[in-house]
Amino acid sequence: MATSTTPYALAVDDSPLILLDVADILEEAGFRTYEASSGDAAILMLPEYAHTITLLFSDVEMPGDTSGFALARHVAENYPWIEIVIASGQISPEAGDMPEKATFLSKPFTADMVHAHLRDILPDGKKPVQLRSAV
Predict the structure, then answer these.
(1) What does the alpha-carbon distance between residue 80 and residue 87 come to, in Å, rounded to a whole number?
(2) What class does CATH assign to 19-133?
(3) What average pLDDT is seen over the chain?
(4) What pLDDT is recorded for position 129?
(5) Rounded to a whole number, what is the largest CA-CA distance in the chain?
(6) Per-domain boundaries in the chain
């Protein structure tokens, strides 16, 4: 059986509608997606799925003990191959909030904005075909 080369992204947001929208945007960009409704849920998923994940796309403010910033730091420390995008409409990161490799995107955003951001930040080897061939 052939192994798919389609990369996976982990979308994390506590708002079901925003999570669905983010997953759709990432799928339009060429990713398969895993979804988590909190940073805590994402932390629990990572040991099983991290080896397949290329991108973390997370909100900042979520219920539980793990904010998006804390999740980003956890991913950077434990899964360094995963690229990280943090998004928020309420909070802007301050020095030390995010790991050095993480990038920030302000909400609200459109699919075109997310796709352009991903084209800018992802190395060619981690871009899905749709992002590599887009203008």
Answers:
(1) 19
(2) alpha beta
(3) 93
(4) 87
(5) 47
(6) 19-133
> Which three-class secondary structure state does DSSP give residue 47?
helix
Which H or E element spans position 111? helix 111-121
Return d(Cα 135, Cα 127) in angstroms, integer: 13
d(Cα 106, Cα 88) in Å, to the nearest integer?
Answer: 5
Q: What pLDDT score does 55 carry?
A: 97
Cβ atoms within 10 Å of 80's Cβ, excluding its own:
9
At residue 101, what are phi and psi to the nearest 5 degrees? -80, -10
Express each pLDDT in 83-124 by its tens digit.
999 999 998 899 899 999 999 999 999 999 999 999 999 988
Closest CA to 40 of 17, 12, 9, 8: 12
Closest CA to 55 of 77, 33, 28: 33
- To which residue do tokens 């339009």 refer? 28
Least confident piece of the model among 19-23, 55-59, 129-133: 129-133
Angle, CA 52 vertex, CA 49 and CA 57 arms, to 5°? 80
* 68: nearest Cα among 107, 112, 30, 29: 107
| Calpha distance 59→47 (Å, rounded) | 20
